Amino acid sequence: MSNVAGKAYVMTVVTPMRPCLTWVQRLAYMAIRAVPSTLNSLLGLLFIHFGRWAIIKRNQWPDYGQGRQKLQNDYLLFSSNFNGTWDQYLDSFSDGIPTGVDLFWVSSTKFPRSIPSTPFKDYIRVNQVDTDYYYNATPGAAEPDIKAALRVRRAVLTLAQQHDSPTPEEFQKAYVAALCSVQNDLGYQGYAPVASDDTKNADSNREDYVNNQQKAAAALI
To answer: Binning pLDDT at 50, 70 and 90, where does residue 75 land?
Structure first.
């Protein structure tokens, strides 16, 4: 399925802007950078990997032999990766930072504002560009899964360093303490709930790759 790799979803949105309003968009981004606290609600959402907005002026599109494009509008390119569903992601924008979202797309043509969320979602859906090729190095793991695995790894390495020095009883206590500290991190790196048959089929097509990676990792232990 386009836009999906395991638990991750990639979103690419291209919206037109009238050139006379591009400076307004740049000014809005300057204001957001000057007051980063406006993004606190968004930064706290761990299922979002990253989000990037970039202004592309009408004379900045590359020429790969097709000839220089003659465009009437500048464009705003938004790209993001996240875990979860499309609706959850956009709802987090509308619920978490509606004012910030309005600033992100303030100059985009016919942008309806982020509240109410239904027109906002319709606008994103119309301007979204599907990503046919999307590579994810860890398709079976979301960002929290990876962070949890790193915490478990650090705990195991610490135990390995302590293995030779204490008595068996002392090491047992250290082991139990380490296990208790990471017990919430011992999750299963499987797949997210099936959002659609297309998503399920895409996951099935990647199953062999994921299994091979797990075997390769097991061989290193």
So the answer is: very high
